[in-house]
Amino acid sequence: MENVPIYISIAFGLVTLLTVWIFFKASGNSRKTLLILLGWLLIQTKIASSGFYQITNTIPPRFIMMAPPAILFIIGLFLIPQGRRYLDTLDLKTLTILHTVRIAVELILFSLCVYKVIPERMTFEGMNFDILSGLSAPFIYYFGFLKKTLNKNVILIWNIVCLGLLINVVVNAVLSSPSPFQQFAFDQPNIAIFYFPFNWLPSCVVPLVLLSHLASIRKLIRS
Predict the structure, then answer these.
(1) pTM attached to this predicted model
(2) For each of the chain's 223 residues, which pLDDT tens digit applies?
(3) Phi and psi (nearest 5°) for 15?
(4) Which of 24, 77, 93, 113 is the most buried (most CB within 10 A)?
(5) Backbone angles phi, psi at 16, to 5 degrees
């Protein structure tokens, strides 16, 4: 990834840390939450820096060490009583404002496309409409929680729609990545996620966005 300017890497690293910080605040400044997230980032840094993810012809593909462990952890939170109690402590307003980081993520993805390390279909010029989630999040936060002019059903629908947008870009990212299961973008595949710090996107940023939506949906349905 020598052709990608260092400032893009630094920018993405800062966006990731900002995402972690906002989720930490949503957890009520839980030190355990912060330690788990920082520990996971450190593990992913070591794995990516070793070149482990750059070997793409294995079955199963090595990138299953990115998002799937985090997703299994999230599933566990919903299955066990302690996990559900933790989810109920998360602050809905802060979880909503967390989604503003998706604006910066989409701009960085567009920059990576310019340098030909991800395909166009993973950007807002292609099949990725996730930037709409980031752009709309401040309005949901302001009118839903500060002005209180939006009822919970509107906020619930917004979370469900934005969850769908997230799933869409994840599917495109997986099927555009070099692996035995690749379906798209053979001329310009998704290789950025195999390198540090961009492996933090599927391993940390996306799971936190996913968890924020799922926890919010749970809280809105139960309220």
Answers:
(1) 0.96
(2) 778 999 999 999 999 999 999 999 999 999 999 999 999 999 999 999 999 999 998 888 999 999 999 999 999 999 999 999 999 999 999 999 999 999 999 999 999 999 999 999 999 999 999 999 999 999 999 999 999 999 999 999 999 999 999 999 999 999 999 988 889 888 999 999 999 999 999 999 999 999 999 999 999 999 8
(3) -65, -40
(4) 113
(5) -60, -45
